[in-house]
Amino acid sequence: MDPREQSATPPGPLAGVRVLEVGSVIMAPYAGKILRDMGAEVVKAEPPGGDIGRRIGLLGPGGTSVLSLNLNAGKKSIVVDAATQQGAEEMRRLIGWADIVLTNVLPHRRRRFGLSWEQVEAVNPRAVLVTGQGFASDSAHADAPAYDDVVQAASGLADSYRLRDGVPRYSPYVVADKVCGMSMAQAALAGLHSRGATGTGCWADVPMVDTMAAFTLVEHMGGQTLTPPEGEVGWSRVLAPEHRPHRALDGWVCVMPYSDANWAQFCELLERPDLLTHTHLVDNRARSAAPATYEAVLADYAAGRTCAQIEAECGERGIPAHRVTRIDAVREDPYLSSRPLLEHAVHAEEGEYVHVGSPVVFSGMDRPGPADCGREDADRAEVLRMLDTGGEEAGRTVGSSSHEC
Questions:
Q1: Does residue 189 share a domain with residue 44?
Q2: Are strands 251-255 and 202-207 parallel, antiparallel or unpaired?
Q3: How far, in Å, CA of 8 to CA of 371, rounded?
Q4: Which segments does the entry list as coiled coil (predicted)?
Q5: pTM (predicted TM-score)
């Protein structure tokens, strides 16, 4: 049986929930992946030529990007040209079918796709519309282009590296797209809960800059949290240049005797009772305020031991510690390779690959297994048959009153 047929209605807590994804690259597709991995039925509506995320980065033997192999696994694809009368009608029918509509189309272009809240509400008043873009839809910057790096810069996240290194930096992964994708999925589920209480849909806007500013400022607002401000921004413990994995004899390791009980056990392990009364190490507050002194003790400890020795010694005493897992070795990592997160899969065109599944496990429910990421428009006939059942008219049975989430 075709792997995608096996996962057409994947089991899970969101089984029966219908999601229309009109998105590109990572943010909205990542939100769609999260919902699909929890059992939702996801239809990916793509423009002619397909989502550009299909062609970004490393490509497999058949021409599909490795990014797309995981982001679009198990989704049904249909190409919709919203600029044509036929495409506009297909989009309207898809909106009528959906419980959740996810999009990262910029606000000024949404109306062209039939994706403004007024248009979605008119077609399906029970739909939950979740929009995501760089800046808030009701702001003066709503239509400003904003990729991940721009969002890191605008939200203060890039500046958090200045607090540590003296210069701003970008994170070495697309943190804004993925965090905001998770926030879109979270907003979609909250919207479904609201619909269950009110009987009507709603619109949730997830501006990336706002989301990442909130993400960054939880700890780094620091003394600016208070009015009037008292103290500097930033959390000293995590901003210290010395706060990093330490070199062991055969690799790198994280050692973290964080609580006072952990520290007492660690000092016993080192046979250094004098550290218990050291001015800069006497308790958690002191150690957090003097990270250079604290980290120097950890670095000296790690330097004379193997990662296995450190894990064993700390493990016996309940002290958190773990070797640094290399990304190029995750497939052989004893823990990660034993989890259902990394699953062996075979793609119809790309051959064998590792499917990155959901990290969440629900009791008493099956996990949706690996499924093919088909080519754009691969499921057109199936999607149109699905719409022909009349499911797209479900939202019309409810009154048109609604509200923003």
A1: yes
A2: unpaired
A3: 9
A4: none
A5: 0.91
For 392, the token pair is 């797209």
Total domains, the chain: 2
How far apart (Å, rounded) are the C-alpha atoms in residues 192 and 195? 5
Task: Give me the CATH number covering residue 271.
Answer: 3.30.1540.10
Phi, psi of 305 (to 5 degrees): -135, 160
Residues 8 and 37 in one domain: yes
Determine phi and psi for 128, rounding to 5 degrees.
-105, 110
Q: Which helix (H) or strand (E) holds 55?
A: none
Gap between the Cα atoms of 255 and 314, Å rounded: 8
Cis? peptide before 320, omega within 30° of 0 = no
Same domain, 160 and 271: no
294 and 166, same structural domain?
Answer: no
Q: How confident is residue 404, by pLDDT bands cut at 50, 70 and 90?
A: low
DSSP at 229: -
- How many C-beta atoms surround the C-beta of residue 310 within 10 A? 25
End-to-end CA distance of the chain: 41
Q: Which residues are registered as beta bridge partners of 132?
A: 206
pLDDT tens-digit series, residues 285-324: 999 989 999 999 999 999 999 999 999 999 999 999 999 9
d(CA 382, CA 53): 23
Is the domain of 33 the same as that of 97? yes
Using one digit for the tens of pLDDT, what is the confidence trace for 154-187?
Answer: 999 999 999 999 999 999 999 999 999 999 999 9
Domain of 280, in residue numbers: 246-323
Handedness of CA 119, 123, 124, 125 (dihedral sign): positive
d(CA 67, CA 53): 7
